[in-house]
Amino acid sequence: MHTPDGPRFLASPREGLPPLADSPSAVSEAADALASGTGPVAVDTERASGFRFDDRAWLVQLRRTGAGTHLVDPAAVPDTDRLLAPVMNSTPWVLHAAHTDLPALTSLGWHAPELHDTQIAGRLLGYGQIGLAGMLEELLGVTVAKDKGREDWSRRPLTDDLLTYAALDVELLTELLDTAVAQLRRRSIEEGTDRILWYRQECEHVRTEWSHPVTVPDWTRLRGIGAVRDPRGRELARRLTEIRNRIARDLDTPPEKVLASSLIVELARSPQDAEDVLLSRGTGGGRVRPPRSARGGHGRRPPRPMPRMSPDLRSMLLHGVRDALSADPGELPPRPEQVRGVPDHRTWSRDHPVAARLLSGFRDAVDTLSGHLDLDPSELLVSRSVRSLAWKVSASLSPGPAGPQDDPVGWAEELVGGLLVGEDARPWQIDLLVPVFVPVVDTVMVDTETAGD
C-alpha cells in the first residue's frame, strides 16, 4: 500500500502533542475523555527494564476515536490504576505485540475484556514477526521514527521528543487494525479459509497467557541451567539468584547488573569451586578460574573475566554458596521441567530412529503446509513443540503401537490431537495439523510393525 512517491513520514501526532498526564486531576480528565470515545482503545507502554529492576510501565499511551491521545505517567500518579480502571476494564484494547505490554498493564490492575493485536494480524497475513513501523509502512503507507525504544523511560522530565515518539505508537493503531482485518477477511474469501477465526483464537491465547503481573525470572530460567546436573549446583544457582534479585529490587536496578546470570551458571557447574573462586578473586578485576577438574590439559577455554563486586555482595554470595553446600540433600531442587524428559534431538538418528523419522516427517509437513498458507512455519507449531510431539508419539509406537489395530487412523488422530492440545496448540492449528501429521504417523507405524515382524 505504498504511495507512488513512497511512504509518508509522520513526524508528530495529527492533533498535536498532548500534555503529559502526571497529576491525579489530569489522569481523571484523561479517563473521562476516553470513556466518552467510541470503539476500542489503542494502548502502548514504555518500560525501562534495562535501567530498572523489572519491566513495569513508566508511561502509558492511550488513544480512542473521539477522545484523542493521552500520555499517562503512572509513576507520578499512584492512583492511575484506580482512575483509569473503569474504562480500561470495560473497553476492548488494540496493541501491537501485546505480549510485551500485557504484564505491565496487568500490574496496573487492568484487564482487557477483549484483545486485538496488530502484530498477530500481520503474522497471519504472512509478514512474520513484523514491527509496528514495518506494518504501518506496508499497510498504510506511513513511516514513523522507531529509534527511542531503548531510552531510559524512568528518567524525568520526559522530553518532547520522547513524548512525541510515544504518542505516535498509538496514533494509527486503530486504522492499522481495520486495514489488517479487512485483508484477513479478503484472504479468507479467496482461499476458503477462516483467518479471522485464526486471528481471534491467537488474540485470545495471548490475552489469557500474558495477562499476569510483571515478574522477574527465577533461577530455573537462567540460560544454560539445564547443563547443571549436580543438584548441589542447582541449589547454589537458586540461592545466588535469590540474593542478586533481592539486592536488585532494593536498588531498583536490573538483576544482571548486580550479578550476571552467566556467572551464576558458571559457578553452579562446579559448586565445590565456587567459594574458592569468590575468595581468591577478592573485589574484582581478576578472572574466574575453571573448576579443578578442568585445570591443566590443553585446549580449554581461557577463564572469563571476573566482574567487580562490593565486599558486602561478595560476603552475601559466600554465605549463599556455603548454605547451598550444606543444604539437606532431600531439599535440593530437581532439574527444571523444561529440560527434562526429551533428549537432544541431534542424537535421535543414532539413538532413537523412530523419533527421528517422525521429527523429519512432521517438519516436512509443517513446512509444506505453511508454504501453502503463506505463513511462517512457527505460526503453525514452534520447533520445540514439533520435537516434543515427535518424541511423545514415538513413545506410543515403541516397541509397537498401543492403539486399537482395527482403527489405526482414528487412534493416530486422537493421539496427535491430544498431544497438540498438550503443546498449547490452538484449535485452528490442530484442525490444520492433524490431517498432515496422521499420514506421517501411519507410515512410521507400518514401518515399525514391519521391522518388528
Radius of gyration computed on alpha carbons: 26 Å
- Named CATH topology of the largest domain: Nucleotidyltransferase, domain 5
Oligomer: single chain
Strand coverage percent: 5-15%
CATH architectural arrangement of the largest domain? 2-Layer Sandwich
Give the biggest sheet.
6 strands, mixed
Number of domains: 3
Number of helices: 19
The helix content, as a percent range, equals: 40-55%
What characteristics describe this protein?
453 residues, alpha/beta, Nucleotidyltransferase, domain 5, DNA polymerase, domain 1, two-stranded parallel ribbon, 3'-5' exonuclease activity, Ribonuclease D, RNaseH-like_sf
Sum this structure up briefly.
With 453 residues, this protein is α/β, with parallel strands linked by helices. It is built from 19 helices and eight strands. Its EC number is 3.1.13.5.
Structural overview:
The protein is an alpha/beta fold. The protein folds into 3 domains: 8-210, Ribonuclease H-like superfamily/Ribonuclease H (Nucleotidyltransferase, domain 5, 2-Layer Sandwich); 234-337, DNA polymerase, domain 1 (Orthogonal Bundle), CATH 1.10.150; 345-452, HRDC domain (DNA polymerase, domain 1, Orthogonal Bundle), CATH 1.10.150. It is 52% helix and 8% strand. It is built from 19 helices and 8 strands. The strands form 2 sheets. Strands 2-5-4-3-6-7 form a 6-stranded mixed beta sheet. Strands 1-8 form a two-stranded parallel ribbon. A hairpin with a 2-residue loop joins strand 4 (57-65) and strand 5 (68-72).
